[in-house]
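WARN  no MSA supplied for this record, continuing single-sequence
INFO  ligand: 2-acetamido-2-deoxy-beta-D-glucopyranose
INFO  echoing inputs
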Amino acid sequence: MIGVSWGLIVGVVVGVVIGILLAVAAFFCVRLRKKRGRIGFIGSSSSRRCSTVPIRANGVDSSTVLSDSTTGPGFHRINEDDGLSLWIGQNRKRVASVTGIPKYSYKDLQEATCNFTNLIGQGAFGPVYKAQMESGEIVAVKVLATDSKQGEKEFKAEVLLLGRLHHRNLVNLVGYCAEKGQHMLVYVYMPNGSLASHLYNDSRNALSWDLRVEIATDVARGLEYLHDGAIPPVIHRDVKSSNILLDRAMRARVADFGLSREEMISRNASVRGTYGYLDPDYVSSRSFTKKSDVYSFGVLLFELIAGRTPQQGLLEYVELASINAEEGMSWDEIVDSKLDGVYDAEEVNQVSTLAYKCINRSSSERPSMRDVVQALSSVIEARGQ
Ligand SMILES: *[C@@H]1O[C@H](CO)[C@@H](O)[C@H](O)[C@H]1NC(C)=O
Ligand SMILES: *[C@@H]1O[C@H](CO)[C@@H](O)[C@H](O)[C@H]1NC(C)=O
Ligand SMILES: *[C@@H]1O[C@H](CO)[C@@H](O)[C@H](O)[C@H]1NC(C)=O
Ligand SMILES: *[C@@H]1O[C@H](CO)[C@@H](O)[C@H](O)[C@H]1NC(C)=O
Ligand SMILES: *[C@@H]1O[C@H](CO)[C@@H](O)[C@H](O)[C@H]1NC(C)=O
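INFO  complex generated
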């Protein structure tokens, strides 16, 4: 009897203990999985620290930076009130935000630009510096004018918008910095500089006619994307040869798009854009439309044809030539002398006629960027035949 009840008691006790242990184990398993789920794939393995951009698809609280035991002196957390959750990894000197646009610290950009001494350009919004990041990557850092009246929120909104614009004919945004009251934008570096520097620098080899038409087509594609591909559509407002940059392979990309013009307004109270490229319709109506960009693009096309800046009387020159062109003569007389007569006269006529449509005083008579892309593409396609 005693043996039996002992056996029973031991059995019950062991059963209960095992049951409790199982329940506790199950409880912790569920807890752990919930936690794992919440922190996405940012595990505790330090080797993964900065390997990928931590984007959590369904985070409950997307503005919380999740850190764990790997958070050491090399990591700081930055809390943003607008949903840009950031991680800083010392080894990559960069922060990946939820939006996918890396955020850099002021200090890193200061180092990368040799304390802001590697000046490569001066845009409407402030100086542009060449920077070598610790990874070896070369980028261009645009420091927005400090007298900017733009607040943090507006700047972040702009960065979000810019970060969504991606096209092979745009100089894409690859990062930003908002620290110490400074706003900076980090862009892909374009080794061959601006189109203006190729057209107007006598110590550089002249661009061939064929290349000029290809550059024009690249620019038109970039603008077409801004006008018709981007949501919401973006009007560039400052299309000009110094805003067109060339990559290693001499493919053209449009720069300086999508920025609000606050800085420019505050510096020059009345007219925005660049003199010589400004749509006359805009000057009278003060409203910028896609067709104002088409006008500026037409001026750019004539620059490519004639190798002369708007400030050098380009349009007066074009008007004179247009009279002859109407009388059945061709546009040959305006062609850049640096081409030494090496060009296809038929192509020059087609491109000039297109450019002339783009600068029609009446904006409704101008083609859309989509029409322009088609016209230029057909010029290039006809070459192979
Ligand atoms: C960077 O330049 C500023 C002035 O332009 C100077 O005050 C500062 O000490 C420099 N910093 C470094 C780290 O060289
Ligand atoms: C012109 O081009 C040469 C060589 O490509 C370059 O060294 C020089 O700085 C350029 N000049 C200007 C004004 O851009
Ligand atoms: C463009 O850049 C590449 C690489 O930097 C260079 O080799 C090439 O000569 C440049 N082309 C022109 C036309 O300057
Ligand atoms: C401001 O606009 C005036 C004409 O309205 C022009 O003469 C001047 O150069 C402009 N200044 C800047 C900094 O663009
Ligand atoms: C504008 O386009 C219309 C229609 O193509 C044309 O009749 C007119 O002459 C053009 N005006 C100018 C100033 O080019």
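Confidence is low (pLDDT under 50) at residues 34-93, 262-270.
INFO  checksum written, moving to next record
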